[in-house]
Amino acid sequence: MLGNAVLFLIIAIIAGAVGFSGIAGAASTIAQILFVLFLILFLVSFFTGRRR
């Protein structure tokens, strides 16, 4: 999932550099959502992980 966030971030950067503002905005929004989702899942798994 983090890989998808990075992929959409790269797409947003390339599209922004080329001048496709609509595509860049959509890709950056998707990247932000995926990153936040990844961060939440990471924190949940960190606190509910194995405890010995």
Automatic annotation (TrEMBL):
The chain crosses the membrane at residues 29-49. It is found in: Cell membrane. One of its GO terms (cellular component) is plasma membrane. It is a single-pass membrane protein. Keywords: Cell membrane, Membrane, Transmembrane, Transmembrane helix. Its main location: membrane. The keyword Phosphoprotein does not apply. It holds the Pfam family DUF1328. Belongs to the UPF0391 family. HAMAP family: UPF0391. This is UPF0391 membrane protein FX987_02078.
